[in-house]
Specification:
By secondary structure, the protein is α/β, with parallel strands linked by helices. The protein has seven helices and eight strands; from the N terminus they run ααβαβαβααβββαββ. The strands form two sheets. A six-stranded mixed sheet has the order 3-2-1-4-6-5, with helices on both faces. A two-stranded antiparallel sheet has the order 7-8. Helix 3 crosses helix 7. The protein binds iron/sulfur cluster.
Length: about 250
C-alpha cells in the first residue's frame, strides 16, 4: 500500500487510530516525535503518553526560544516522566552564520532569515531524524494556507522517513478543547495573543483580523511563513484535499 492510499484511508480516522497504525507498523524506538512545544505538539505528547507508547521525543533548540518555551518543556518532562531529546545548531555553523552579520541578521533579508532557520532548525532536525523510520509531526491543515493540504502519511525523501501527521485534520478549537479537557501543559504566551510559537525574535502576537501565522516573520510577505523543516520540493509536504475527520 502506498502513502497516497494510506492518506486516503486515514481521512476519516481518528488521531488515536492513526497512532495505533503507526506503532503497529513501525518499531517503537524507530518512531521519532518532533515538537517545538506548540499547543498541538503538547496535545500529541499527551495522547501518545496516555496511549502507553514510548517513541523518541525530540526538540530542536534553536537557542532563540522564549523562556515560556523552556518552561513548558520542563513541565512536560515532569508531568509525563518523559525524556525530550534536545538537538542544537552546530557551533561552527553558528559562528559562520553570525560572522559579519550579527545576531539579528534575520530582519535584514529573506536570505538571511532562511540561512538562520537552516542553521538553527533544518540542520539539527536532520541529525535528530537520522536512524528513524517514522517521523511524527503535529502539523495541522488549518494552521495556514500553505499547510491546507498536507498529507496524513507521506514519504520524506529529505530525511528518509515516513512522515505521519495524526492531527492533520484537527482544527484549532479541537486542539484547545483537548488541552483544556486533559489539563495538558501549554505555553502561556497563547493567553497573551500568540497563535503560533516560534523563536522569540521572530514571533509576535496576532492582531485582530490577521492570519494565524501572521505573527511569524511579520516583516516578510505572507507567503513566507515556513522555516524550511516541513518543506520538500518547494512546498509543505505533498498535498491532498482535506476531508471529514474525527478526533
Ligand atoms: S525563526 Fe528566527 S531566530 Fe529562529 S531560526 Fe528562524 S530566523 Fe533564526
Amino acid at each position: 500500500m502506498n502513502d497516497d492510499q494510506l492518506t486516503h484511508d486515514f481521512e476519516s480516522s481518528s488521531a488515536t487510530d492513526i497512532l495505533k497504525w503507526t506503532f503497529e507498523t513501525f518499531q517503537e524506538d524507530k518512531v521519532a516525535l518532533s515538537t517545538s512545544f506548540g499547543a498541538e505538539g503538547c496535545a500529541l505528547i499527551h495522547m501518545i503518553v496516555t496511549m502507553g507508547y514510548k517513541p523518541r521525543i525530540f526538540t530542536v533548540d534553536t537557542g532563540r526560544n522564549f523562556q515560556e518555551t523552556y518552561d513548558v518543556w520542563d513541565r512536560l518532562v515532569k508531568r509525563y516522566g518523559i525524556e525530550i531529546e534536545s538537538y542544537s545548531p552546530d557551533p561552527a555553523d553558528l559562528r559562520q552564520l553570525l560572522k559579519g552579520k550579527g545576531p539579528n541578521l534575520f530582519y535584514e533579508s529573506v536570505e538571511n532569515r532562511s540561512q538562520c532557520c537552516f542553521v538553527r532548525k533544518v540542520k539539527p532536525l536532520k541529525v535528530a531524524l537520522a536512524g528513524a523510520d517514522a517521523w511524527l509531526s503535529a502539523l495541522r491543515r488549518d494552521q495556514s494556507e500553505g499547510r491546507r493540504n498536507i498529507e496524513i502519511v507521506s514519504r520524506s525523501e529529505a530525511h528518509n522517513v515516513t512522515k505521519i501527521c495524526p492531527l492533520a485534520n484537527w482544527l484549532e478549537e479541537n486542539v484547545w478543547t483537548y488541552i483544556r479537557s486533559n489539563d495538558v501543559p501549554y505555553i502561556k504566551l497563547y493567553d497573551q495573543g500568540f497563535t503560533t510559537i516560534g523563536c522569540a525574535p521572530c514571533t509576535r502576537p496576532v492582531r485582530p483580523g490577521e492570519g494565524k501565522r501572521s505573527g511569524r516573520w511579520w516583516w516578510e510577505s505572507d507567503d513566507k511563513k515556513e522555516c524550511g523543516i516541513h518543506i520538500e520540493d518547494g512546498k509543505v509536504t505533498p498535498r491532498r484535499p482535506a476531508a471529514n475527520f474525527q478526533i
